[in-house]
Amino acid sequence: MRVLMFGWEFPPHIAGGLGTACFGLTKGMKKQGMDVIFVVPKAYGDESEEAVKIVNASDVSIDMRYSNLKEYFDNVTYIEVNSRLIPYVGTDDYFNIENQEKYYTENHDTLISHRKYEFSGKYGENTMLEVERYAMVAAQIAKDFEFDIIHAHDWLTYNAGIAAKKVSGKPLVVHMHATEFDRSGLDINTVVFDIERKGMMAADRVVTVSNYTRNIVVEKHGIPAEKVFTVHNAVEPNESQAVKEYKKNIDDKIVTFLGRVTFQKGPEYFVEAAHMILQRDPNVRFVLAGDGDMMPKVIRRVAQLRMGDRFNFTGFLRGAEVDKMFALSDVYVMPSVSEPFGISPLEAMRSNVPVVISKQSGVSEVLQHALKVDFWDVEAMADAIYGLLHYPALSDMFVEHGKIEVDNLLWENAAYKLKLIYNELI
């Protein structure tokens, strides 16, 4: 079985959990006997191709004489973005939408018959423009490649999946890793929401990363429940030596938040819980590893609570840096307001770090050996963290059984469930 897969990022060039999930899932698919053609907007040449064939959309030459491509060209919507975007963050305040009859500043009649588009592969001021161009490239790829089924990850690639389906007539599966409701709460960006809904309505099957996300897709997007299936994420085995070799040189306990510093991830609740813990034990350090639009607000709050000497802001971490951070950590906290899944707690647990997670997360559906609290219940969060820091027997129990639990969450099992969905459509 050959799968044409569209994704906006692929390791080592990632901005969050989406690229990590794509990498793990495709490795699992390889073990299940599937071949994957993975299309990214921009390939850098250092992506792992152990499980996929990487296609660089920036290298694809589009034949503008092809009727289906002309149709996409004539109906492109250009959206100007005046601020840098980061993935999964609500974009209401950034978008200035303009429908244009002509594509960019070029005249359709003077176009050469073939052309390429150079993609940044990032989340920036031209994101929506790149989304539309990516769909045109997808149509060309669908015309040129042989495959059995199409799989598109998250809203950025849904238009590409629809284009490939229209050209090839092959079944389309779209994967929902995070909805606009997760990113922005009730104050959603309607442009992104419309793309999400359009993609899911056009798809033959919708895959969600949790039942939590499945309920949002069915209830808030209005997608028929019978075509929405949950396939939980997993985690790659930890082959890094950092956990064994990288040790902290201070006596203080370390509590870590690792993720985007945005509304969705609940960093403000982490700060308030930290303040409560420091009232009981001043010898605890807190690490906020990540970046995002809420960073200035979080820093101001830490200063107001006079915790500056107890907080470390590392910025965004990736790869071995994440492993080193977990090697230093005594507790990992994920206080997300709305988390479709959440791979980072699994990464912490495989590194022998006990975790506190919000009940408003998909990963809470598959974990038994994690302390779960409501994101808004700061007192319960502080109590859970304090307990893991000060009761060694409790911490050891969660570390031991949590590691066993996570080691059994395999990407090849997720890929098997996905293969069953594919088989129904082919």
List descriptors.
426 residues; six-stranded parallel sheet; 17 strands; alpha/beta; Rossmann fold
Q: What structural class should be given to the helix and strand makeup?
A: alpha/beta
Distance between the termini: 9 Å
Shape field: elongated
Strand content: 15-25%
Provide the number of structural domains. 2
Can you tell me the residue ranges where pLDDT is under 50 for at least 5 consecutive residues?
A: 77-111
CATH architecture of the largest domain: 3-Layer(aba) Sandwich
CATH topology group of the largest domain = Rossmann fold
Please give the number of β-strands. Answer: 17
Mean pLDDT: 88
Task: Write out the CATH superfamily name of the largest domain.
Answer: Glycogen Phosphorylase B
How many alpha or pi helices? 15
Major sheet attributes: 7 strands, parallel
CATH class of the largest domain: Alpha Beta
Radius of gyration computed on alpha carbons: 22 Å
- Placed side by side, the strands forming the largest sheet appear as 3-2-1-8-9-10-11
Helix content bin:
25-40%
